[in-house]
Write a structure and sequence with these properties.
cytoplasm (chains A, B); 6-stranded mixed beta sheet; rRNA (uridine-N3-)-methyltransferase activity (chains A, B); methyltransferase (chains A, B); 2 domains; 7-stranded parallel beta sheet; elongated; Alpha/beta knot; alpha/beta; S-adenosyl-L-methionine (chains A, B); Ribosomal RNA small subunit methyltransferase E (chains A, B); homodimer
Amino acid sequence: MQRYFIEATQLQNDIVTIIGDDAHHISNVMRMKPEAEIICTVPGSSTVRCVLTNISSETVTATVVEYVENTNELPISITIASGLPKGDKLELIVQKGTELGASGFLPFAAARSIVKLDDKKAGKKAERWQKIAKEAAEQSYRHIVPTVEQPVAFQQLLNIIPQFDACIVAYEESAKTGETAQLVQTFQSLKEGTRLLVVFGPEGGLSEKEVDQLTAKGAKLCGLGPRILRTETAPFYVLAAASYHFELMG
Amino acid sequence: MQRYFIEATQLQNDIVTIIGDDAHHISNVMRMKPEAEIICTVPGSSTVRCVLTNISSETVTATVVEYVENTNELPISITIASGLPKGDKLELIVQKGTELGASGFLPFAAARSIVKLDDKKAGKKAERWQKIAKEAAEQSYRHIVPTVEQPVAFQQLLNIIPQFDACIVAYEESAKTGETAQLVQTFQSLKEGTRLLVVFGPEGGLSEKEVDQLTAKGAKLCGLGPRILRTETAPFYVLAAASYHFELMG
């Protein structure tokens, strides 16, 4: 069933009102007819199954049939902090990371990031990433849309670490030396509702200085198995492992 | 350190001889000089660290310094059977799946596969996929290059199931109904050195008939958490979960 995110104000007295792009999508792209059903989610609040009553390309109205339980979110909240990678890799990280359950994305300018974004470019990029997150969240039946921040300086990344319950750094050298315990220990230490920040380097990895600064703030270095993962693959590993640990082994 | 796969015949009496594209890569792309070190792997056999002695764009020779232990392979062998997806998604599956430790890839023509490949096209595609697997295997420090088969008919997929110790089917309906135990149970039942086949549908999923035929052959249906994953994302989940289970928790 097609899914759409709506604002709280669009759901009143069990009537949903959809406007803008989503109305266009329902009427002109999907060509849905009255009595067709859709799912609408107010992020972080209700999810409703509803039946379409009136359809035009400007406004679609629908009547709620059922309030659906929200059980599709990972028990812990995981924010992916990615050292700005090359090309459109961050788009892949945001799309697949959203499917795999990330709560948010925080790109940062790492010492070895080759891409430099000025404020104007960064704003445009962040807008595009946010759109990708919304579409992937709808497609994967998420109940929230992960937030994608504008790229921050490394110092700002250090400053926000204390806002999280735990912080781990995916570190290639840990993988090479066979470190295997940290990710399991971290997951075991985190209770439902806690917040985890996971930091990934750009293509060249984090610099030694960056690693030292992160660990000085309490971050733990963490291996992700013996194979060397690309910068865009490592977040998928952490998110899938979190789902396996908290949702399947449970 | 740069890594190359070589044939068994290229390693004799602790001398490695590299020819062709890899010799060109060492001499002209990386511009390495004598005394530089590289790692060479005979797939499924030895991995050696060696020091370059002679370099030309046609032939490079190197002397073995150390035999390196092969510990980078997943304890169980996992073959990814993907219902042929659209566009270049299979390239992404092969690249990232190789980084994440897959042993092989077997594309198959599913009832809902939109792409149809004739033999000539299929051969060309398989060649390209195999090249992607080789590059990803080098980059991620694998000790084998996963095999990528030419796409097979669904009936052939059914026929090879008995060659594996276990077969699971990633099934969207299992995810929707909250099935969470099968993947964990399957991993727990598999000992080191066993072979697992994992079947994924194309974009529209597997048909009911296909699912029935697979389960009739002993395949188990399996959920991958509550979020609906795209056809190219689901294999990453299974491989990362396998690494978490066998390599980090192990």
